[in-house]
Amino acid sequence: MKNLLVLLTCLLVCGTSFAQKLNKISGKITNEKTENVPYAIVKLVRLPDSNLVKSSSADLDGGFTFEEIKTGEYFLSINMVGYKTLTTAKFTVNQDVVLPAIKIESVTKQLKEVTIQGKKPYIERKIDKTVLNVEGSIVSSGNSALELLEKAPGVTVDRQNDEIKLNNKSGITVMIDGKTNFLSGADVTTLLSNMSSDQIATIELITNPSSKYDAAGAAGIINIKLKRNKAYGTNGSLSLNTGQGFQPNFPKDMYRVGLSLTLNHRVNKWNVYGTGAFNRKVGFNNINVLRSTLTSSLASSFNQNFEREMKGVAYMGKLGADYYVSDKTVIGVMVDANTINSDLNNVSQTHIREMQNSIASSNTVNQLALSDSPVGNLTANFNIKHDFDKEGTNLTFDADYSGFSNEKNDKFNAQYLDNSGTLTKTTALRNFTDAQINVVAAKSDFTWAVNKTVKVEAGLKSSYVVTHNDLISEEYLSGAWQNDVGKSNSFIYKENINAAYANFAKEWKKWQIQLGLRTEYTHSNGNSVTSNKVVDRNYLSLFPTFFVNQTLNKDNSLNYSFSRRVDRPNYQQLNPFVFYMDPYALDEGNPYLKPQFTYNYEVGYTYKEISFSLNYADTKDMITQISQQNEETRIVNVIRKNLGRAQTYSANLYFPVKVTKFWRMQNNLSMFFLKFDDGNLEGAAYTANKVAYNFNTNHSFTLPQDFSLELNFWLNTPSLRGVEQTTITQYALNAGIQKSLMNKKLKIRLSMDDIFLTNHWEGKLQYQNVNLNVVNRYLSRRGAFTINYAFGNQNVKSARNRNTATDDIKGRAGSN
């Protein structure tokens, strides 16, 4: 028996060793001239089931190697741009195999005879998002990212409140390369206004994200993808743009200039990439505010005029590397840094007329406000992606750190003049604000392609945020700066969000369905150190998603979707600081703000390229801006509060038209019905509703001699946001022309925005004892000249396209 056991053990060991014997396959790719062909894509396919085993790319000498290959029969498939696809005869592997040189046939002659017209349209409608192809757009040249969004269908840029809306709904999550930038309010618009279109490849508008994304962003996600070439070898692009604002009664120094360089080097198992950019931006606002107050004994009218001139310089840089450990595993690292330094000069003049006991009087307040605001951001990412043998099955892991620094130095010097223009008083104030934000996040996602028709996704994520905000407010009294105890404060906010999600997708012949559920547990703690106020919250939320697509025939389809989403207050909105703006206006945070939750419903119909959808959004505890007016001091205090309920009914029609071979237009028309209700808003019941329309049309013309032309027109009718109303129709016509040279590697563009100077904002706020009207004219008419040169290999693309950054880290730092 003992000898038998020894014999069986030996047989098992030998059998296991034989079963685990692995082999190596190597070879070389050449052309018909026996020249080596580098970077060809080589796929190893197993017989008899024709399953893909591995894929690789040839090195600089045309050589390739497959290791750890099991015994069996195989064949190779070789692909290379400029060559015919080749499938080899089958061969047997039972030991290391060195294949003879594999010759692939060039198709250069055929390619020379074909003229390729492959320009993507500016607007692309996809099943789950709308894509703006900025990189190839002429009318986008010389614009900032914020100005591009202003032209996007369904997007409204509210320059009065520094807010971006999608389908007339607030609560947008702005992402850059799949990563949230953690800024909001005025800070995110500052960042986007300092990002040139030369840096941007596409902008994605995702109105109803799946459970894979964080639940934040009731209106959806705007994802800005920066340029990045993944071609083999060394390649890149260099862009230079300059522009000038042309607007009557505005300063002459309204020029901008930008320079950006994108580089990519891919060889063997390494892909190294980097981007550097410099932008000099300017902005100017002329704002007029008319406000009236009325008490039993005093009637007042305020006529305020503000001239705000902003100049900023931004530097942005990104450096990353991907290492292909094998044909199935990739490790990546990336560091992204940017800094923006903006100077704001705000000259204001306030004329006050008073009527008390039938006696009229007037006085004036002149103020000069100077602000220096350096903002810095450093983000680091580590990621791994592994593809399993089953195609479409993979596991990813991302770890991120983001650090933000936002400092503001504000100075306010005011002069008070009586009815005769005699100086009666002067005041001098200054604020020092320091906001530091640190975020650590990690997430892992698993995608399992069960078969060709079933896919399962699941993932975990955890993020931890700590913000420190310090405000020192001082007033110049008796020849010295003295601390204003009532305004100086220190605020610390901590937040931890832990999330898990699962998605199930199934396809039939004419049906597609996806069910998802995301759960997020949030623990937040806001501590106003100076005033000893602590708000601690814990809550668990469920966010289901549901998507159905029904194919009626080859030209017609229906789709249905549902999701629940959340918008948490941004960190500065929770900050209880009182910010001084002028002698009659203050801005204050609210630590008791609650998150707002939104239910989104959508049904859509598609006929070929034409699409029509109906949408309904129901938001509870909508975060909105409220103005409170003190009857005695007549000071307006701007705060944020939760409004009971906001409902949005909308219809959207997208219809592209190919007018001629050289003229193509894309049109988008949206209609909204907005309704707001609150049983007790500032001491009274509030209800309001409004119908609004948005229209966007883009026209592309292909002209002889490699010229092309684009026209863009957008229009937004008066709208409503809580208690604030837009009272005019905003619209603008934009145009651009392009000339391509050097086999289309060099492109020269000239464009003009708001040709007829029609884009400005007017609105009003009339609620309770607040009655004010605002006219805001900003720098909207701009001419731009852009040169873009692409160098290196721009044709041979990589075998796989992976996302290097964490998809969904959500941050909410920024201005109120």
Secondary structure elements and their pairing?
Layout lengths: L1 H18 L3 E8 L10 E7 L3 E7 L5 E7 L2 E8 L6 E2 L3 E3 L3 E2 L3 E2 L4 H5 L10 E3 L4 E3 L12 H6 L4 E4 L4 E4 L5 E5 L2 E2 L2 E2 L1 H8 L6 E7 L13 E7 L6 E13 L9 E13 L2 E25 L3 E27 L4 E28 L2 E29 L6 E24 L5 E27 L4 E24 L2 E4 L5 E19 L3 E18 L4 E19 L4 E12 L3 H4 L3 E5 L2 E4 L7 E12 L2 E20 L6 E23 L4 E19 L2 E20 L3 E10 L3 E2 L2 E3 L3 E12 L4 E8 L7 E7 L2 E9 L3 E11 L20 E2 L2
Parallel strand pairs: 1-8, 1-9, 14-18, 16-48, 34-37
Antiparallel strand pairs: 1-4, 2-3, 2-5, 5-6, 5-7, 10-11, 11-17, 12-13, 14-15, 17-18, 19-20, 19-47, 20-21, 21-22, 21-46, 22-23, 23-24, 24-25, 25-26, 26-27, 27-28, 27-29, 29-30, 30-31, 31-32, 32-35, 33-34, 35-36, 36-37, 37-38, 38-39, 39-40, 40-43, 41-42, 42-45, 43-44, 44-47, 45-46
Please estimate the helix content.
Answer: under 10%
Shape annotation: elongated
Helix- and strand-based class? mainly beta
- Counting copies of identical and different chains, the oligomeric state is single chain
Task: Count the DSSP helices.
Answer: 5
| Number of strand segments | 48
User: Cα-atom Rg, whole angstroms?
Assistant: 30 Å
In whole angstroms, the N-to-C terminal distance is: 83 Å
Report low-confidence residues grouped into runs of 5 or more: 1-20, 108-118, 795-816
Averaged pLDDT: 85
What characterizes the major β-sheet?
22 strands, antiparallel, barrel
Explain how this protein is built.
The chain is mainly beta. Helices cover 5% and strands 65% of the residues. It contains five helices and 48 strands. It has a 22-stranded antiparallel β-barrel. Strands 10-11-17-18-14-15 form a six-stranded mixed β-sheet, with no helix packed on it. Strands 2, 3, 5, 6 and 7 form a five-stranded antiparallel β-sheet that branches. The protein is elongated.
